[in-house]
Automatic annotation (TrEMBL):
Upper taxonomic lineage: Eukaryota, Fungi, Dikarya, Basidiomycota, Pucciniomycotina
Domain EF-hand: residue ranges: 49-84, 135-170, 171-204
Transmembrane segments: none
Comp. bias intervals (Polar residues): 1-10, 34-43
Species the sequence originates in: Microbotryum lychnidis-dioicae (strain p1A1 Lamole / MvSl-1064)
GO cellular component, one term: transcription export complex 2
Pfam family, one: EF-hand_7
Compositionally biased intervals (Low complexity): 14-29
Protein name (Swiss-Prot/TrEMBL): EF-hand domain-containing protein
One MF annotation (Gene Ontology) recorded for this entry: identical protein binding
GO BP of this protein: Golgi vesicle transport; proteasome-mediated ubiquitin-dependent protein catabolic process; spindle pole body duplication
Alphabetically ordered keywords of this record: Calcium, Metal-binding, Repeat
InterPro entries named among the record's database cross-references: CALM/Myosin/TropC-like, EF-hand-dom_pair, EF_Hand_1_Ca_BS, EF_hand_dom
Highest taxon listed in the record's lineage: Eukaryota
Region of interest (Disordered), ranges: 1-43
Length: 204
């Protein structure tokens, strides 16, 4: 049977589920671990899942396959990773990545942003900093939306089944139903956002 793992470095100070279920939720542990990394005092490191997501996004939006992103590719790739930045901020990041600043090019005046590019390593460093600065509560809401693909405001058995399949988790319907039953406070057979937040955000 599954339960939700803890959400921060203070994970074991407050049990979320019974001890028999404490380590039984591989399905949601990835999301919770991602949120936990933004709120811990230990040195920040991207998880293997986060690195894979960044790599996949970079390769997907590197349309000309030159191992670099131009302005448009950079902006869309950031948006795909959950960072919907305004044009001025995207330009600023792109200029910084290309060494353009007030000290060496008079504030970048005359520099053609359309000709600038950013490679994978620099892109990963930028995204890592953004993830580290993200609000954990906003991350939980984002995690909920990953499960609630239809935007119904609730996580159903079908949602859990699909996520389990996408993550390569071999979980049967009995296990998935048991997880819902464990945390379905209003007993409607699904997990709503409030229930999800109360489970996942105990220690954020």
């Amino acid at each position: 049977m599954m339960s939700f793992p803890s959400s921060s470095s203070k994970a074991h100070s407050r049990p979320i589920a019974s001890s028999s279920n404490a380590n039984a939720s591989p399905l949601l542990s990835r999301q919770k671990h991602s949120v936990a990394s933004t709120s811990t005092s230990t040195p920040f490191r991207l998880s293997s899942d986060q690195l894979s997501e960044i790599r996949e996004a970079f390769e997907l939006f590197d349309h000309d396959r030159d191992q670099q992103l131009d302005y448009h590719e950079f902006k869309v790739c950031l948006r795909a990773l959950g960072f919907d930045l305004k044009k001025a901020e995207v330009v600023r990041l792109l200029k910084e990545a290309n060494g353009v600043n007030h000290a060496n090019v008079a504030g970048g005046v005359g520099v053609n942003v359309g000709e600038m590019r950013i490679g994978y390593e620099r892109f990963t460093n930028i995204v890592e900093g953004m993830i580290q600065r993200r609000d954990p509560m906003l991350e939980l809401k984002r995690a909920f939306r990953l499960f609630d693909e239809e935007g119904t405001g609730k996580i159903s058995l079908d949602n859990l089944r699909k996520v389990a399949s996408d993550l390569g988790e071999q979980l049967g319907d009995e296990e998935l139903r048991a997880m819902i039953d464990e945390f379905d406070l209003d007993q409607d057979g699904m997990i709503n956002e409030a229930e999800f937040m109360s489970i996942m955000a105990d220690d954020v």
